[in-house]
Write a structure and sequence with these properties.
single chain; 294 residues; alpha/beta; Rossmann fold; N-(1-d-carboxylethyl)-l-norvaline Dehydrogenase, domain 2; 7 strands; 50% helix; NAD(P)-bd_dom_sf; EC 1.1.1.44; gluconate utilization; phosphogluconate dehydrogenase (decarboxylating) activity
Length: 294
């Protein structure tokens, strides 16, 4: 199998290498001349034999829109486009309709694994027509970890379902990371705890909280025991927000994920107006002491 891959950033670059190791021939395109195989999208399309499969791995939003619009104008009927980025599931419907008008197939795929995917493989959540997913199975099999397909790959449903599953996956990730982080802060605040990294290391085997995220937490503490080199400002990719919006739209309570998202917002404030007001109100109704502004 020979496919095209557009977008060779941190994820796409490693995915190209894993695909090649898995026996899939890949021609990649990226605006960075140091990593690209093709000089242009046109050259990439000309290189990949028809009917083509083109995997798009670029940032969600306007960039993905621009790439898929360009492909809709240059691909041929029967070609298949797979969006493997972090697009919002509602965008998949729009992209699928745009391509379908030209008889070009479309599927979406949520991809989890980060920078470790090259070594460990990727968890994959695909959305689209069953025939299109079947056609792309050699790609999914090359990307996922070794072992049973059902342990790391799922055809979730129709167009948009793959990205919806990945959105919820990332929302859960927010909550898990926040719980680990709060446990870390509580342990660090207690003077009777003298081996903080060792505590987390002791949880890695046999406990109910063992996980890959915990393993990465131990690794982070080994590299920087006090996390002195890291600022407390935390970005969000957008998928946590989308998860919370979907929870509201479907009347599904998601307090842990929502609180984790709001904690990220709080991390970006040098001072919190909301917490200033809480302090002021406590002083007003109870005479509780307030601290002077920094």
């Amino acid at each position: 199998m020979h496919i095209g891959l557009i977008g060779l950033g941190k994820m796409g670059f490693n995915m190209r290498e894993r695909l090649r190791k898995g026996g899939v021939e890949v021609t990649g395109y990226d605006r960075n001349p140091d990593v690209t195989d093709s000089a242009s999208v046109e050259e990439l399309i000309a290189t990949v034999p028809a009917p083509r499969i083109i995997w798009v791995m670029v940032p969600s939003g306007p960039i993905t829109d621009a790439v898929i619009t360009e492909l809709s104008e240059k691909l041929e009927p029967g070609d298949l486009v797979i969006d493997g980025g972090n697009s919002r599931f509602t965008e998949d419907q729009k992209h699928g309709e745009l391509l379908a008008a030209k008889d070009i197939r479309f599927a979406d795929c949520g991809v989890s694994g980060g920078v470790w995917g090259l070594q460990n493989g990727y968890g994959l959540m695909a959305g689209g027509d069953a025939a299109d997913i079947e056609r792309a199975l050699p790609i999914f099999d090359a990307l996922r970890p070794e072992g049973e397909r059902a342990d790391s790959f799922v055809h979730v449903g129709g167009i948009g379902a793959g990205h919806y599953a990945k959105m919820v996956h990332n929302g859960i990730e927010y909550g898990l990371m926040q719980a680990y982080a709060e446990g870390y802060e509580l342990l660090a605040a207690k003077d009777i705890v003298t081996d903080l990294p060792g505590t987390f290391r002791a949880w890695q085997k046999g406990t109910v909280v063992r996980s890959w995220l915990l393993d990465l937490m131990v690794k982070a503490l080994d590299e920087d025991p006090g996390l002195a080199s890291i600022d407390d400002y935390v970005e969000d990719s957008g998928e946590g927000r989308w998860t919370v919006e979907e929870a509201i739209a479907n009347a599904v309570p998601a307090p842990a994920i929502t609180a984790a998202l709001f904690a990220r917002f709080a991390s970006r404030e040098d001072t919190s107006p909301a917490m200033k007001m809480v302090s002021a109100l406590r002083h007003q109704f109870g005479g509780h002491a307030t601290r002077p502004a920094k």
